[in-house]
Amino acid sequence: MTQEHLTRRGFVGFGAVATLTALGGFSLPSLMEPELADAYTLHNYYQSKLTIYYKFDSSVSWSDTMGKRIKDGYNHAINVWNSALNNKTMTKYGKKYRYEFKAANTSNPATLTLSRYSKKNDGKRGHTPTSVNKNLIKSATVYLNATEITNATLSKHVATHELGHVLGINHGGTKNSIMYVKKDRNDNIVKPTTDDINAAYANLKKTVAYAIKPVQVPGSRKNSKGLGYAGHVQDLGDAASVCDGQTAGAVGYSTRLENFRFVGIPYPIARIDVEVHIQGQGWVKYTNIKASQRLGTSGKSLRIEAIRIKAYDRNGKVININYQVHQQDYGWSAVKKNGETAGVTGKSLRIEAIRIWLP
Ligand SMILES: [Zn+2]
Hints:
Layout: H1 8-13, H2 15-24, E1 46-47, E2 51-56, H3 65-86, E3 90-92, E4 95-97, E5 100-103, E6 112-117, E7 126-127, E8 130-133, E9 136-145, H4 152-166, H5 194-211, E10 228-233, E11 237-238, E12 242-243, E13 248-249, E14 257-264, E15 271-278, E16 282-286, E17 295-296, E18 304-312, E19 318-319, E20 322-327, E21 331-332, E22 336-337, E23 342-343, E24 351-357
Parallel strand pairs: 1-9, 2-5, 2-6, 6-9
Antiparallel strand pairs: 3-4, 7-9, 8-9, 10-11, 10-12, 10-14, 13-24, 14-17, 15-16, 15-18, 18-19, 18-23, 20-21, 20-22, 20-24
The structure holds zinc ion.
Protein backbone atom coordinates (compact mmCIF):
# COMPACT_ATOMS: atom_id res chain seq x y z
CA MET A 1 0.00 0.00 0.00
CA THR A 2 1.25 3.42 -0.83
CA GLN A 3 2.26 5.45 2.13
CA GLU A 4 2.30 9.17 1.98
CA HIS A 5 1.32 10.32 5.39
CA LEU A 6 1.74 10.19 9.13
CA THR A 7 1.85 6.58 10.17
CA ARG A 8 3.37 4.53 12.90
CA ARG A 9 5.48 2.89 10.22
CA GLY A 10 6.96 6.31 9.59
CA PHE A 11 8.64 6.06 12.97
CA VAL A 12 9.90 2.57 12.36
CA GLY A 13 11.44 3.72 9.12
CA PHE A 14 13.21 6.65 10.75
CA GLY A 15 15.12 5.69 13.84
CA ALA A 16 16.27 9.20 14.60
CA VAL A 17 12.74 10.44 14.96
CA ALA A 18 11.67 7.47 17.04
CA THR A 19 14.61 8.10 19.39
CA LEU A 20 13.80 11.77 19.72
CA THR A 21 10.25 10.81 20.50
CA ALA A 22 11.28 8.38 23.19
CA LEU A 23 13.63 10.93 24.80
CA GLY A 24 10.94 13.55 24.79
CA GLY A 25 8.54 11.26 26.59
CA PHE A 26 5.91 11.63 23.92
CA SER A 27 3.52 8.92 23.05
CA LEU A 28 3.54 7.64 19.52
CA PRO A 29 0.63 8.64 17.37
CA SER A 30 -1.41 5.68 16.42
CA LEU A 31 -2.66 6.77 13.06
CA MET A 32 -4.33 4.64 10.51
CA GLU A 33 -5.46 6.33 7.40
CA PRO A 34 -8.12 4.33 5.64
CA GLU A 35 -8.28 4.90 1.92
CA LEU A 36 -11.68 6.49 2.24
CA ALA A 37 -12.75 9.89 1.12
CA ASP A 38 -15.90 11.69 2.01
CA ALA A 39 -15.90 14.92 3.94
CA TYR A 40 -12.57 16.14 5.23
CA THR A 41 -11.34 14.37 8.33
CA LEU A 42 -8.91 15.20 11.10
CA HIS A 43 -6.44 13.11 13.04
CA ASN A 44 -7.47 14.46 16.45
CA TYR A 45 -3.97 15.95 16.51
CA TYR A 46 -3.39 19.66 16.17
CA GLN A 47 -0.58 22.17 16.55
CA SER A 48 -0.05 23.64 20.02
CA LYS A 49 1.04 26.98 18.53
CA LEU A 50 -0.39 29.16 15.82
CA THR A 51 2.96 29.84 14.19
CA ILE A 52 4.75 26.78 12.93
CA TYR A 53 8.47 27.49 12.66
CA TYR A 54 10.27 25.44 10.05
CA LYS A 55 13.83 24.80 8.93
CA PHE A 56 15.39 22.94 6.06
CA ASP A 57 17.30 19.86 7.20
CA SER A 58 20.97 20.90 7.10
CA SER A 59 22.18 17.31 6.86
CA VAL A 60 20.95 16.82 3.29
CA SER A 61 21.86 18.56 0.02
CA TRP A 62 19.67 21.32 -1.39
CA SER A 63 22.02 22.44 -4.16
CA ASP A 64 21.78 19.54 -6.60
CA THR A 65 18.98 19.35 -9.19
CA MET A 66 16.73 17.13 -7.05
CA GLY A 67 17.44 19.20 -3.93
CA LYS A 68 16.53 22.43 -5.71
CA ARG A 69 13.33 20.91 -7.07
CA ILE A 70 12.25 19.72 -3.64
CA LYS A 71 13.15 22.98 -1.94
CA ASP A 72 11.10 24.86 -4.54
CA GLY A 73 8.22 22.50 -3.76
CA TYR A 74 8.46 23.23 -0.04
CA ASN A 75 8.66 27.00 -0.59
CA HIS A 76 5.66 26.81 -2.85
CA ALA A 77 3.72 24.76 -0.28
CA ILE A 78 4.52 27.25 2.49
CA ASN A 79 3.36 30.16 0.33
CA VAL A 80 0.09 28.59 -0.79
CA TRP A 81 -0.81 27.39 2.70
CA ASN A 82 0.09 30.76 4.24
CA SER A 83 -2.05 32.69 1.79
CA ALA A 84 -4.94 30.25 2.24
CA LEU A 85 -4.65 30.38 6.06
CA ASN A 86 -4.33 34.15 6.00
CA ASN A 87 -7.91 34.33 4.77
CA LYS A 88 -9.17 31.94 7.43
CA THR A 89 -8.86 33.72 10.73
CA MET A 90 -10.85 33.22 13.90
CA THR A 91 -11.58 35.83 16.50
CA LYS A 92 -11.20 35.35 20.23
CA TYR A 93 -11.08 38.02 22.93
CA GLY A 94 -11.47 40.61 20.19
CA LYS A 95 -8.30 39.56 18.35
CA LYS A 96 -7.79 37.63 15.16
CA TYR A 97 -5.75 34.44 15.06
CA ARG A 98 -4.52 32.25 12.22
CA TYR A 99 -2.04 29.53 11.43
CA GLU A 100 1.18 30.53 9.75
CA PHE A 101 4.35 28.80 8.62
CA LYS A 102 7.46 30.88 9.35
CA ALA A 103 11.21 30.33 9.03
CA ALA A 104 12.76 29.44 12.40
CA ASN A 105 15.19 31.83 14.08
CA THR A 106 17.26 31.91 17.27
CA SER A 107 14.36 32.86 19.51
CA ASN A 108 11.90 30.57 17.72
CA PRO A 109 13.46 27.17 17.06
CA ALA A 110 11.94 24.92 14.44
CA THR A 111 9.29 22.37 15.32
CA LEU A 112 8.98 21.45 11.65
CA THR A 113 11.93 20.09 9.69
CA LEU A 114 11.74 19.88 5.92
CA SER A 115 13.90 17.08 4.60
CA ARG A 116 14.51 14.85 1.60
CA TYR A 117 15.75 11.37 0.87
CA SER A 118 16.19 9.21 -2.19
CA LYS A 119 14.89 5.71 -2.38
CA LYS A 120 13.80 3.90 -5.50
CA ASN A 121 10.65 1.81 -5.55
CA ASP A 122 9.72 2.31 -1.90
CA GLY A 123 6.25 3.39 -3.01
CA LYS A 124 6.42 6.68 -1.11
CA ARG A 125 6.65 10.14 -2.52
CA GLY A 126 6.65 11.73 0.88
CA HIS A 127 5.71 11.14 4.49
CA THR A 128 5.54 13.04 7.73
CA PRO A 129 6.40 11.32 11.01
CA THR A 130 5.16 13.38 13.91
CA SER A 131 5.83 13.56 17.65
CA VAL A 132 2.72 14.16 19.66
CA ASN A 133 1.82 14.64 23.30
CA LYS A 134 -1.81 13.87 23.96
CA ASN A 135 -3.58 15.73 21.14
CA LEU A 136 -0.78 18.17 20.45
CA ILE A 137 1.63 17.94 17.57
CA LYS A 138 4.99 18.80 19.15
CA SER A 139 7.23 18.37 16.13
CA ALA A 140 7.17 16.94 12.65
CA THR A 141 9.60 16.14 9.88
CA VAL A 142 8.51 16.01 6.27
CA TYR A 143 10.48 13.71 3.99
CA LEU A 144 10.08 14.00 0.25
CA ASN A 145 11.45 11.19 -1.87
CA ALA A 146 13.62 12.79 -4.55
CA THR A 147 13.65 9.62 -6.62
CA GLU A 148 9.86 9.52 -6.89
CA ILE A 149 9.38 13.24 -7.37
CA THR A 150 10.27 13.55 -11.02
CA ASN A 151 9.11 17.05 -11.87
CA ALA A 152 8.46 20.48 -10.37
CA THR A 153 4.67 20.17 -10.27
CA LEU A 154 4.82 16.87 -8.42
CA SER A 155 7.22 18.41 -5.90
CA LYS A 156 4.75 21.23 -5.20
CA HIS A 157 1.87 18.77 -5.07
CA VAL A 158 3.43 16.38 -2.55
CA ALA A 159 4.94 19.15 -0.40
CA THR A 160 1.56 20.92 -0.15
CA HIS A 161 -0.12 17.62 0.75
CA GLU A 162 2.41 16.84 3.50
CA LEU A 163 2.07 20.30 5.07
CA GLY A 164 -1.63 19.50 5.36
CA HIS A 165 -0.64 16.53 7.53
CA VAL A 166 1.58 18.88 9.59
CA LEU A 167 -1.61 20.82 10.34
CA GLY A 168 -3.24 17.61 11.55
CA ILE A 169 -5.41 16.95 8.51
CA ASN A 170 -6.16 13.39 7.54
CA HIS A 171 -6.95 12.20 4.04
CA GLY A 172 -10.35 13.28 2.82
CA GLY A 173 -12.22 16.05 1.16
CA THR A 174 -13.45 16.16 -2.37
CA LYS A 175 -11.73 14.85 -5.45
CA ASN A 176 -9.83 18.11 -6.03
CA SER A 177 -8.64 18.41 -2.43
CA ILE A 178 -4.90 18.35 -1.85
CA MET A 179 -5.66 15.98 1.07
CA TYR A 180 -7.72 13.57 -1.03
CA VAL A 181 -6.57 9.96 -0.92
CA LYS A 182 -3.54 9.45 -3.12
CA LYS A 183 -4.82 6.78 -5.43
CA ASP A 184 -7.53 9.06 -6.78
CA ARG A 185 -5.84 12.40 -6.32
CA ASN A 186 -4.94 14.63 -9.24
CA ASP A 187 -1.17 15.19 -9.16
CA ASN A 188 -1.57 18.55 -10.85
CA ILE A 189 -3.28 20.09 -7.83
CA VAL A 190 -0.75 22.35 -6.14
CA LYS A 191 -2.74 24.26 -3.56
CA PRO A 192 -5.28 23.63 -0.81
CA THR A 193 -8.94 23.90 -1.81
CA THR A 194 -12.01 24.72 0.25
CA ASP A 195 -12.22 21.35 1.98
CA ASP A 196 -8.55 21.43 2.91
CA ILE A 197 -8.82 24.95 4.27
CA ASN A 198 -11.95 24.08 6.25
CA ALA A 199 -10.10 21.15 7.79
CA ALA A 200 -7.22 23.47 8.76
CA TYR A 201 -9.74 25.92 10.21
CA ALA A 202 -11.34 23.20 12.34
CA ASN A 203 -7.91 22.56 13.84
CA LEU A 204 -7.20 26.28 14.16
CA LYS A 205 -10.16 26.52 16.53
CA LYS A 206 -8.67 23.76 18.70
CA THR A 207 -5.26 25.40 18.73
CA VAL A 208 -6.70 28.78 19.68
CA ALA A 209 -8.78 27.23 22.46
CA TYR A 210 -5.61 25.55 23.77
CA ALA A 211 -3.06 28.32 23.27
CA ILE A 212 -4.87 31.62 23.77
CA LYS A 213 -5.90 32.35 27.34
CA PRO A 214 -6.57 35.59 29.21
CA VAL A 215 -3.58 36.78 31.22
CA GLN A 216 -3.60 38.76 34.45
CA VAL A 217 -1.09 41.62 34.49
CA PRO A 218 -0.93 42.80 38.12
CA GLY A 219 1.07 46.05 37.73
CA SER A 220 2.62 47.94 40.63
CA ARG A 221 1.37 48.20 44.21
CA LYS A 222 0.10 51.33 45.90
CA ASN A 223 1.88 50.41 49.16
CA SER A 224 2.84 47.38 51.21
CA LYS A 225 -0.02 47.07 53.65
CA GLY A 226 -0.65 43.44 52.83
CA LEU A 227 -4.25 43.54 51.59
CA GLY A 228 -4.39 40.48 49.33
CA TYR A 229 -7.13 39.42 46.92
CA ALA A 230 -7.69 37.27 43.87
CA GLY A 231 -10.13 37.13 40.97
CA HIS A 232 -11.87 34.30 39.15
CA VAL A 233 -12.04 35.07 35.43
CA GLN A 234 -13.99 33.55 32.56
CA ASP A 235 -11.79 31.09 30.61
CA LEU A 236 -8.90 31.68 33.01
CA GLY A 237 -10.35 30.47 36.28
CA ASP A 238 -8.64 31.41 39.53
CA ALA A 239 -6.00 33.99 38.69
CA ALA A 240 -2.98 34.37 40.95
CA SER A 241 -3.54 36.54 44.02
CA VAL A 242 -2.33 40.14 44.04
CA CYS A 243 -2.18 42.84 46.72
CA ASP A 244 -2.40 46.53 47.60
CA GLY A 245 -3.96 47.98 44.47
CA GLN A 246 -2.57 45.58 41.89
CA THR A 247 -4.92 44.39 39.16
CA ALA A 248 -6.85 41.18 39.80
CA GLY A 249 -8.50 39.88 36.63
CA ALA A 250 -7.72 40.23 32.94
CA VAL A 251 -7.89 43.45 30.96
CA GLY A 252 -8.13 43.41 27.17
CA TYR A 253 -9.66 39.96 26.69
CA SER A 254 -13.35 40.81 27.01
CA THR A 255 -13.66 38.27 29.83
CA ARG A 256 -15.91 38.65 32.85
CA LEU A 257 -14.88 38.58 36.48
CA GLU A 258 -17.17 35.99 38.08
CA ASN A 259 -16.05 36.20 41.70
CA PHE A 260 -13.22 37.49 43.84
CA ARG A 261 -11.95 36.78 47.31
CA PHE A 262 -9.73 38.31 49.94
CA VAL A 263 -6.69 36.18 50.67
CA GLY A 264 -4.83 38.53 53.04
CA ILE A 265 -6.63 40.76 55.55
CA PRO A 266 -4.11 42.85 57.52
CA TYR A 267 -4.40 44.35 60.99
CA PRO A 268 -6.28 46.41 62.10
CA ILE A 269 -9.13 45.16 59.91
CA ALA A 270 -11.42 42.95 61.96
CA ARG A 271 -14.35 42.72 59.62
CA ILE A 272 -15.16 43.27 55.93
CA ASP A 273 -18.64 43.49 54.44
CA VAL A 274 -19.03 43.17 50.69
CA GLU A 275 -21.92 43.63 48.31
CA VAL A 276 -21.68 42.23 44.81
CA HIS A 277 -24.10 43.03 42.00
CA ILE A 278 -24.37 39.75 40.11
CA GLN A 279 -25.91 39.27 36.68
CA GLY A 280 -29.53 38.14 37.08
CA GLN A 281 -29.38 38.26 40.90
CA GLY A 282 -28.89 41.92 41.74
CA TRP A 283 -27.09 42.95 44.92
CA VAL A 284 -25.90 40.04 47.06
CA LYS A 285 -24.62 40.81 50.58
CA TYR A 286 -21.68 39.07 52.20
CA THR A 287 -21.34 40.13 55.83
CA ASN A 288 -18.18 39.61 57.90
CA ILE A 289 -16.52 37.64 55.14
CA LYS A 290 -13.88 35.02 55.75
CA ALA A 291 -10.53 34.89 53.97
CA SER A 292 -10.86 33.01 50.67
CA GLN A 293 -14.67 33.21 50.71
CA ARG A 294 -15.86 33.62 47.12
CA LEU A 295 -17.75 36.81 46.49
CA GLY A 296 -19.83 36.22 43.40
CA THR A 297 -20.58 32.96 41.61
CA SER A 298 -18.54 30.11 40.26
CA GLY A 299 -19.32 27.83 37.33
CA LYS A 300 -22.45 29.74 36.38
CA SER A 301 -20.98 32.09 33.76
CA LEU A 302 -22.41 35.09 35.60
CA ARG A 303 -20.68 38.45 35.47
CA ILE A 304 -20.14 40.83 38.34
CA GLU A 305 -21.51 44.26 37.46
CA ALA A 306 -20.69 46.34 40.53
CA ILE A 307 -19.18 46.04 44.02
CA ARG A 308 -19.28 47.77 47.41
CA ILE A 309 -16.72 47.12 50.14
CA LYS A 310 -16.66 48.32 53.74
CA ALA A 311 -14.05 47.50 56.40
CA TYR A 312 -14.12 47.88 60.20
CA ASP A 313 -11.72 47.55 63.11
CA ARG A 314 -12.50 45.42 66.18
CA ASN A 315 -14.47 48.28 67.76
CA GLY A 316 -16.73 48.58 64.73
CA LYS A 317 -15.07 51.77 63.55
CA VAL A 318 -14.83 52.18 59.75
CA ILE A 319 -11.38 51.68 58.27
CA ASN A 320 -10.84 53.44 54.96
CA ILE A 321 -10.66 51.05 52.03
CA ASN A 322 -10.35 52.04 48.34
CA TYR A 323 -11.33 50.13 45.22
CA GLN A 324 -12.01 50.55 41.54
CA VAL A 325 -13.26 48.31 38.78
CA HIS A 326 -12.41 47.85 35.11
CA GLN A 327 -15.71 47.54 33.30
CA GLN A 328 -16.75 46.73 29.75
CA ASP A 329 -17.18 49.93 27.66
CA TYR A 330 -16.01 52.14 30.55
CA GLY A 331 -12.48 51.05 31.44
CA TRP A 332 -11.24 51.88 34.93
CA SER A 333 -13.83 53.52 37.17
CA ALA A 334 -13.12 56.37 39.56
CA VAL A 335 -11.71 55.29 42.91
CA LYS A 336 -14.52 54.47 45.35
CA LYS A 337 -14.38 54.00 49.12
CA ASN A 338 -16.17 52.62 52.18
CA GLY A 339 -19.30 51.11 50.70
CA GLU A 340 -19.67 53.39 47.68
CA THR A 341 -20.70 51.67 44.46
CA ALA A 342 -17.94 50.91 41.94
CA GLY A 343 -19.35 49.75 38.64
CA VAL A 344 -22.43 50.37 36.53
CA THR A 345 -25.60 48.33 37.05
CA GLY A 346 -28.61 47.95 34.77
CA LYS A 347 -26.60 47.98 31.54
CA SER A 348 -25.50 44.34 31.41
CA LEU A 349 -21.83 45.29 31.45
CA ARG A 350 -19.23 42.96 32.89
CA ILE A 351 -16.54 43.92 35.35
CA GLU A 352 -13.27 42.53 34.02
CA ALA A 353 -10.82 43.38 36.79
CA ILE A 354 -10.61 45.06 40.19
CA ARG A 355 -8.08 46.87 42.38
CA ILE A 356 -8.44 47.16 46.17
CA TRP A 357 -6.13 48.85 48.66
CA LEU A 358 -5.89 50.52 52.04
CA PRO A 359 -5.00 54.21 51.48
ZN1 LIG B 1 -1.05 11.77 2.99
